[in-house]
């Protein structure tokens, strides 16, 4: 059975894929649907959803269009989630591969370095890093990547430890392949399945971290995001509940969709584990 057939058998994964597709479509169409800046004040504040034609999600405390903020915020959340995950993989995969392949002192040194980052709570470290570098999209991406790479390194190390003594790897050594070729061509391709699944979950975690940082006022001050929208509305929850609920639901659905897709990828890439459940 092919990968796509196995993936399509998981209805939750298909639902998650549809939701992700809609969020991505909204992000791509945001400049066309709302060409004006989402920071622009377009109506009187606290318009309820549907109260005035053309503002179907209402306006916020400054009279800005909530729908415009939601659309532009989708782009920010997805972009930060994807880029920070790619950077975390770029750090974690090489370190985990070197530790698992060479073992010994190299493994000990790299794992102690990894454990140093794991001893500090992720969110606390992210706050400190963003505060030191000053809030911006670059600092948020870098902070999220720095707190996200240790699990990748440990996962890749474990995969390398279980694969490096297999027959085809020993055969590659006997024919004279270099360590670099063995790592990149022989072992690494066989560790990609769990890494891909982990990456899908890391994007969801990155979106939550970015939203939390923006909620605390550590987001990019020039960029509209879902976390900023919730944070800006937290003092008017009783007066205008929709200002917090709408972006909160957007975050919930996006993170849920990513987790469902990750579960579907796990089932499709590891059919034996899926049958054992």
UniProtKB/TrEMBL annotation:
Keywords, in A-Z order: Cell membrane, Membrane, Transmembrane, Transmembrane helix, Transport
Location(s), subcellular: Cell membrane
Family: Belongs to the binding-protein-dependent transport system permease family.
GO biological process: transmembrane transport
Membrane topology: Multi-pass membrane protein
Annotated signal peptide: none
Keyword Zinc: no
Gene source species: Salinicola socius
One Pfam family in the UniProt entry: BPD_transp_1
SUPFAM superfamilies xref list: MetI-like
Stated name of the protein: ABC transporter permease
Keyword Membrane: yes
Membrane-spanning intervals of the chain: 12-34, 74-102, 123-149, 195-219, 240-261
